């Protein structure tokens, strides 16, 4: 579990529109060189075949880095591409069904926006929880009401599994995210779409402390 907590420290969620300048694969390659520790392929408009192609290219780009790749929502694409796991939301495939198909050796993440959702997440099935949104964000327009750092801390305290905060987070939020007890933060626009994704990833400063969990 320690390895997963470490992987959640700086979690990049891709956005094909924001990554258009360099492409998703080159953006991820640069971001990982700058310190990104986990990658989620998210593309809501792509077909499963298109996600498989990108996921395979990402797996190749990540070879030797130790950085896990998960696919958002699309279990078929994750399995076909040999990704390290899948991340699902509350309205997607059930965690138990996803786990049954993934097997025990791949990562299963689950988005939780409320205390009820956190408490309902089976720690024997789900590996980590994505908690938020901390702030509103233009990269996910259908999100629930932002919970802020106080709300984040309340959800973290309820979770027996590793947690990653998400929702409008930037380089200036590292200390507050870690103070909440979360293991790391997931970002999109703080890295994707920037002129230098490597430099923007490197700008996340974790030297002030890590979580005690």
UniProtKB/TrEMBL annotation:
Domain of life: Bacteria
Cofactor binding, per record: Binds 1 Mg(2+) ion per subunit.
Binding site for Mg(2+): 73, 92
EC number: 2.5.1.3
Binding site residues for 4-amino-2-methyl-5-(diphosphooxymethyl)pyrimidine: 40-44, 72, 111, 140
A single cellular component GO annotation: cytoplasm
Record bears the keyword Metal-binding: yes
Domain Thiamine phosphate synthase/TenI: 10-191
Keywords: Magnesium, Metal-binding, Thiamine biosynthesis, Transferase
Residues that hold 2-[(2R,5Z)-2-carboxy-4-methylthiazol-5(2H)-ylidene]ethyl phosphate according to the record: 137-139, 168, 188-189
Named cofactor requirement(s): Mg(2+)
Entry keyword annotation includes Transferase: yes
Sample GO molecular function, one term: thiamine-phosphate diphosphorylase activity
GO biological process, one term: thiamine biosynthetic process
Catalytic reactions of this protein: 2-(2-carboxy-4-methylthiazol-5-yl)ethyl phosphate + 4-amino-2-methyl-5-(diphosphooxymethyl)pyrimidine + 2 H(+) = thiamine phosphate + CO2 + diphosphate; 4-methyl-5-(2-phosphooxyethyl)-thiazole + 4-amino-2-methyl-5-(diphosphooxymethyl)pyrimidine + H(+) = thiamine phosphate + diphosphate; 2-[(2R,5Z)-2-carboxy-4-methylthiazol-5(2H)-ylidene]ethyl phosphate + 4-amino-2-methyl-5-(diphosphooxymethyl)pyrimidine + 2 H(+) = thiamine phosphate + CO2 + diphosphate
Matching Gene3D superfamilies: Aldolase class I
Pathway(s) this gene product operates in, as recorded in its UniProt entry: Cofactor biosynthesis; thiamine diphosphate biosynthesis; thiamine phosphate from 4-amino-2-methyl-5-diphosphomethylpyrimidine and 4-methyl-5-(2-phosphoethyl)-thiazole: step 1/1
Pfam families, alphabetized: TMP-TENI
Job description of the protein: Condenses 4-methyl-5-(beta-hydroxyethyl)thiazole monophosphate (THZ-P) and 2-methyl-4-amino-5-hydroxymethyl pyrimidine pyrophosphate (HMP-PP) to form thiamine monophosphate (TMP).
Family that this chain belongs to: Belongs to the thiamine-phosphate synthase family.
Protein name per UniProt: Thiamine-phosphate synthase
Organism: Puniceibacterium antarcticum
């Amino acid at each position: 579990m320690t390895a997963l907590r470490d992987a959640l420290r700086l979690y990049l969620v891709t956005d094909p529109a924001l990554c258009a300048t360099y492409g998703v694969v080159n953006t991820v390659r640069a971001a990982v060189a700058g310190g990104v520790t986990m990658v989620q392929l998210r593309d809501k408009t792509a077909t499963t075949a298109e996600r498989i192609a990108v996921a395979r290219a990402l797996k190749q780009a990540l070879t030797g880095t130790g950085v896990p790749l998960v696919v958002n929502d699309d279990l078929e694409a994750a399995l076909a591409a040999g990704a390290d796991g899948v991340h699902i939301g509350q309205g997607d495939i059930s965690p138990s069904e996803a786990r049954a198909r993934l097997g025990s050796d791949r990562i299963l993440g689950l988005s939780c926006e409320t205390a009820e959702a956190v408490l309902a997440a089976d720690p024997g099935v789900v590996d980590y929880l994505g908690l938020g949104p901390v702030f509103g964000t233009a990269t996910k327009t259908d999100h629930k009401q932002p919970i802020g750092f106080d709300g984040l801390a309340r959800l973290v305290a309820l979770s027996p599994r590793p947690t990653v905060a998400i929702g409008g987070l930037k380089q200036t939020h590292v200390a507050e995210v870690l103070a909440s007890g979360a293991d790391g933060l997931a970002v999109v626009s703080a890295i994707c779409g920037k002129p230098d994704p490597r430099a923007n990833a490197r700008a996340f400063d974790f030297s002030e402390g890590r979580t005690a969990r």
